[in-house]
Amino acid sequence: MNENLRKHMEDEHTENTGEGGVPLEAIQAVDPASFLPGSEIMGISAHGASFWTRTARLDTILDGAKQSYFLKTSFGELGNTMMSSEYHCMNKIHAVMPDLVPKTIAWGSYSSIPDVHFFLADFRPMTDELPDIEAFPAKMAELHRSATSPDGRFGFDVTTFHGETPIEHGWSDTWEDYFSRTTKVLFELEQDAQGANEEIRELMVPFFNELAVWRQPWNKIGKPYRMQYHEHFPMSQPQGDYDDRNALYATRVNILDSILYKENPSYREMLISSMKELVGKFPGGLEEWKSAQIDRL
Question: Region Disordered: what ranges (predicted)?
């Protein structure tokens, strides 16, 4: 990938461009403090940057001990669902691995500001430094071993978000059905967001006949982290197709980024490029792949 494009994409993922229409007073008021009974509010100040929310640090004292909280605020019906999603999803992760994510406190709506909603959790200092290449992949592997589906099906019972794009998961009996079903919905959202594109439409047919964020070019947590992860969590079989499967899953993130950053044509260009690469590598689709597996035996 062109280095200038890579740098531009990294910048676009880190810059603050407007905070989703949330009024500034949302991080000046202490409305969510009602969920901290007995705490004395010492201060609230803007903290961090976000495309779609306003975020702040809330400092308190309880029984003489200082305690800080992370406050995220959003606006409108979509913002309400985003805050609910983050609360419930983080609760699920915290229940399995309490040392991996902050403890959640509450989510809800402001009583003092109409149509403004919030998510409140313990405060953790964030930096731009990469996580430890030994510890972080090990934690991810532990999470993936520990967090299992309650009935063996594939999916999730909470709407999740990529930025402000909602992802409805539902449930499927197989991974293949889950992946293809939900990805087809994302393709339709991409067409709605970016406008109809016949090249993508034509590529979708062979693309689905073939039936991860760390692969994205702007993500500094790249291949070394993936390889270290597999020191703790083995590659799925067949291992010879590992990189192609990873590219397939990364294409899903390309779809979401094309939806999210519709003003930037480079994201759709990257989506089309990744689809062409996969379709070109497997022109015969699933049937040809199956035949190749038989030939290997």
Answer: 1-20
